[in-house]
Amino acid sequence: MAETKIAILGGGNLGVAIALGAAKGNVSSPKNISITRRHLSKIEHLKKNGFKVTTENIEAVTSSRIIILCVQPKQLQGLLQEIAPSLKKGKHILVSTITGISTEEISSHINKEIPIVRAMPNTAIAIGSSMTCICSKNANEKQLKEIQTLFNALGTTLVIEERLMKAATVLAASGIAFFMRYIRAATQGGIQLGFDSEESQLIAVETAKGAASLLLGNHSHPEIEIDKVTTPEGCTIAGLNEMEHQGLSSALIKGIITSFEKINSIKK
After folding, report:
1. Which of 27, 49, 192, 194 shows a CA-CA span of 20 to 30 A to 152?
2. Residue-level pLDDT at 267
């Protein structure tokens, strides 16, 4: 994998994060990673780290094996029509990070039996902590494993059925915002208790990090960890019960479902 040649078409925040993560995780060396963008001024600085930056999509595709699409949905059709003649069966793996575009739709634009993988990361990819859900079309086990290895360098991956990709977008990508809102609310509560804003946010953030780490480290259910904190007639159970009386769990579930209904109603 160390010499895997990668082309990232669309050098925005996500594309750059993938490039940096791939290099840091030793998936590929910077000299074997090409990043394209219409205007290079915002990614020119990557040259000093050894990355290839260019405006030429065809050049990047022909010199690479893994092709990662990181453009806006409205730009996808034009991009696929541009690169389709250069895609070769047996050489290329096409990876799409574009929300709401199915592997079937991508395949219809290239009209070739190229392995296609959809990857749905979240914004924590910028710090190598993304939860990335993956599905595929025409990709064999080895090819899918290779793409998993790439995104494992940027966090954690889970292979799912394509029918669940919109749900993954809500739970993992939108989910970042949902957890941020809880942390913000906890911070505000801490301020009301007497902490200044920086102290309160630090406590809220580190506590949220610790809670998630307990679940991952112990492979346990949230209720098991909750039971370890609650004592009879204690302050924790009193607070939890009040939150439930105010609809905490119900509001979160309704919010997730509302986001899912919205993503299903969006017309491309």
Report:
1. 49
2. 60
